[in-house]
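input
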Amino acid sequence: MNIVRISDGLGNQMFQYAFARKVSILTGKKVYLDIRYINNEDMYRMGKRVHYKGKLKHRKYGLQYFKTSLPVADNKILSRWRYLQQSGYVQRMIYSLSVMNKWIWAYRNEELNFNGNLTKIKCMMPTYYQGYFFNLIYFDDIKGTLQQEFSLKQKIKLPRKLGEIIKYRNTVSIHIRRGDFLRLNRDISDSEYYNKAIELVEERIDSPIYLLFTDDIEWVKQNINIHYENILISDMGFKDYEEFTIMKHCRNNIIANSTFSYWAAYLNSNFNKLVICPKNWRSATIPNEWVRI
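output
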């Protein structure tokens, strides 16, 4: 049995789930998801103390709306982990032997003591994994599985016109995230990036139609030059997981430095898709065929 911590927004949850799914395939054993830390993204440690940065918008467990196959850990399972956190090495060994390795007694933090060598996972003891796992090595070879499991359980009710546009037109999603990123001084893509991306799209794509996903439409109106038809999806009342799915079904994608739009573009099943991304953002996650500007 293994546990993977799930935290932060939907995009980060997908990275963590993808790693967990890979662990389940490699080991052939149950992997549980610990979702207690969804809203603790802004914690950081200094010595033995935990400090808090400014809050991002409220987070929730977003994977519940998708066809994911891994179970969420209940209190009984998590109580074993809490006990063993407080136990010494000898006690952990005794419990490991006495219950046939059903207890979690190893801990791997991606940044501190897990080097990403997946070949070792097969022979590891039951383990609690914590990290973000921003690397294609963790999941690229199970992309087909993830495309199936990151599909919605229930179909979205689209306006007829929008459904026809997605089905028949050369759609290009543009994700522009500012809002909480701007307030907390996170890196955000500027107007130069988006305008260059749009120029590239219009060189390669015939009669594109842009679907806009943004939390700052006024900034978009003042700074982004769109010469073709465009539709503001973010004003249509969709849930975040519904917007994600609409973005995923666009034929082409211009992503922000955001794990949310990253996963929409990565899971996009259009064989001839054009995906444009910021050149200095999470290079280990970017497929070779994507265009970085």
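quick obs: The first strand starts at residue 2 and ends at 7.
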